[in-house]
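Table S2 (text version). Query chain:
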Amino acid sequence: MWKFVFVFLCFPCTLFAFWPFSWDLAEEKRFLGPLISYQQKDGATDLTLRPFLFSYESGNNGTYHFLYPLGKSTREKTYFVPFYLSRKSEEAEDASFLFFFYGTSKRGDYYGLFPFYGRLYDRFGKDAMGFFLWPLYSFSESEGATKTNFLWPLFSVYTGKEEGFKAWPLYGTRKREGVKHTQFFLWPVFLREEKDLDTREPVNSFYAFPFYLQATSKTKASYHVLFPLFSHSEDEEKKKWGFLFSLYSLTKGEERKGYSFFPFTSYDQHAKDTKRSFFWPLYSKSEWYVQDDRYLQKSVFLINRFIEAEGKIYYNVWPFFEYRKENEKETFFFPSILPFRIETFDRIVRPLITLVERREEDGISTVNMFYGLYTREERGENWRTRFAFLFEMKKESGERGFELFSGLFGIDKDRIKIFFIPFKRH
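Corresponding structure-token output:
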């Protein structure tokens, strides 16, 4: 349906380019300056309506965006924040509209109206959940254990593979035999915990916040005294001392060393990986390796960044420009008001706020200035330059040509145009 609407509205402009109503750049046709774009490539169709932040992609069984980034629809998932969400898979499906929800799963069907009544299966990492007049009553089931809440978060009871109760913030205890055991008194002041008891590295913790905090295992230990005044941690690789949230710290080890004197300077080295900063957030630098591949990142005031990875370069100076290179693909944008590296954002939003754009991909180099007022394309030795609807110059197969007023008059190696009518040259 959308194809017929598009053709009906834009067909008169597809006969010839007449900026800003109709113009093209490489394999993409655009209409009304940057507001509408249409492209067919490799059997896929893309349509974007930027006044409504809408787009359609025919790949992957069709993807719609509407009022981006609030709405999106695919075969598996549809949402419009904050009103609607639906998901579908081979095993389950669910949907919610504001406070009403329903769904199906391997455990059965469910529905609810928050906060009055509801039941859910296989949601939010739980096997089952339910509530009645929340926060008056609710429960959750996971891995054979059930947690029942009354006036959440004040009172809870644990049954099944876990046992215990909670009267928050006075006292609480929770135990899963052979796995973990936690207790608190006057939360968050006193806390004792034993966890990972079924592993080779069980952890014991004791907190008397903020006076003393301790967590120990066979190979690791950490201590805090008068948190955050002093901290000490150690493991098989390093020992570290820190003061005031580790703003001032010292790290020593065979392969790990560093220091921090925040915000003036910091340094951390782990094998070949290094991190440095000077007058943070003014300048920071990170260099790390994945096997033999080197990665580098530099930032100035956090927003201005230079990133170099395997076959990739990213460089931006906010809000002036942004440059990217990935293998044989290059892009340049001016200005770069919102320096997001998101493909959907680049397609739907960026053309509205970019005055100068340069791309190089698949042997095609394009320049677009002021929403199509000036464009240039290069394909090997062939090129085409256009200034609005006033004139166009091009070179094809070693021959040059030009057109005036969107083809009202023109000449190339094969034809002469007079009042849009082509005459063959002899």
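Notes on Table S2: The CA atoms of residues 399 and 413 lie 6 Å apart. The longest strand covers residues 283-290.
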